């Protein structure tokens, strides 16, 4: 018996997609997860009643490939042999040509905030994928956040910005908290101030309609504390460091794709 959607891989991203789709109202009987690791299968079966949990791929209208990159091609072949009609890959650095199946493939680059339903995912069509395939992929991935459409050639840059981006933000959060402790605040209070500042600033950036430069100017009084702080950040090359980080991550994504 086939299912509407099969998730291959029950790791963090696969489980995030599963939980997001169920929370969005997808009936559990439409879903299945193929996971080779028995303890993970047992946990998923207990946590998600009604979802079919299997060891190997089964027939499905659509399949999300959420395995490690070095196993994607074999997993795709097994899914097509089992009856998959279209594939969605979330493996970093693996091109649709490298997957190379007889069915349409859509490639995606999600990021870890998908684990809390606040991710951003870029999707790109393989050579045989249609608008209908992209619509299907977007419908799957919107359960865990925002979805944007790009050319496949842009996915390495997407990786550098949003795929790796959460790590940059976490580093900023860590540094802000450490600075608060250095300035005399207890660690718990410093964490609360730093983390909530990042959350609130991000929401303001998304919801206000103003760009980052305008919002920064609005909080920077002439000769004030923020002006003094941002001067030190510019002196320390923070802007340049972010530029170099994104370019380095982009280049590494290209290297992985060539491996």
In the sheet with the most strands, the strands line up as 3-2-1-4-5-6-7-8
> CATH H level of the largest domain: which superfamily?
NAD(P)-binding Rossmann-like Domain
Give the rounded overall mean pLDDT: 93
CATH architecture of the largest domain: 3-Layer(aba) Sandwich
Main features:
2 domains; 8 strands; 11 helices; elongated; ProC C-terminal domain-like fold; 259 residues; Rossmann fold; alpha/beta; eight-stranded mixed β-sheet
Characterise the protein shown here:
- The protein is an alpha/beta fold and 259 residues long.
- It folds into two domains: 3-155, Rossmann fold; 165-258, ProC C-terminal domain-like (ProC C-terminal domain-like fold).
- It is 53% helix and 15% strand.
- The chain has eleven helices and eight strands.
- Strands 3-2-1-4-5-6-7-8 form an eight-stranded mixed β-sheet, sandwiched between helices.
- Helix 5 links the parallel strand 7 and strand 8 (145-149).
- The mean pLDDT is 93.
- Pathway: Amino-acid biosynthesis; L-proline biosynthesis; L-proline from L-glutamate 5-semialdehyde: step 1/1.
């Amino acid at each position: 018996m086939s299912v509407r959607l099969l998730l291959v891989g029950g790791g963090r991203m696969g489980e995030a997609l599963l939980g997001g789709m169920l929370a969005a109202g997808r009936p559990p009987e439409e879903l299945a997860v193929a996971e080779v690791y028995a303890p993970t299968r047992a946990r998923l079966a207990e946590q998600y009643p009604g979802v079919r949990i299997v060891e190997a791929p089964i027939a499905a209208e659509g399949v999300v490939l959420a395995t490690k990159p070095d196993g994607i091609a074999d997993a795709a072949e097994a899914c097509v042999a089992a009856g998959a009609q279209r594939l969605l890959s979330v493996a970093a650095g693996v091109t649709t040509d490298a997957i190379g199946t007889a069915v349409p493939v859509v490639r995606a680059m999600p990021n870890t905030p998908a684990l809390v339903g606040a991710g951003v995912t870029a999707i790109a069509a393989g050579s045989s994928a249609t608008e209908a395939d992209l619509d299907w992929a977007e419908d799957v991935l919107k359960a865990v956040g925002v979805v944007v459409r790009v050319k496949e050639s842009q996915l390495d840059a997407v990786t550098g910005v949003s795929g790796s981006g959460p790590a940059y933000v976490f580093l900023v959060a860590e540094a802000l908290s450490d600075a608060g402790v250095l300035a005399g605040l207890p660690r718990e209070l410093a964490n609360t101030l730093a983390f909530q500042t990042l959350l609130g600033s991000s929401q303001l950036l998304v919801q206000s309609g103003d760009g980052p430069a305008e919002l920064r100017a609005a909080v920077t009084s002439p000769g004030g504390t923020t002006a003094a702080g941002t001067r030190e950040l510019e002196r320390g090359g923070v802007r340049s460091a972010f530029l170099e980080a994104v370019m380095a991550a982009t280049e590494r994504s290209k290297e992985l794709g060539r491996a």
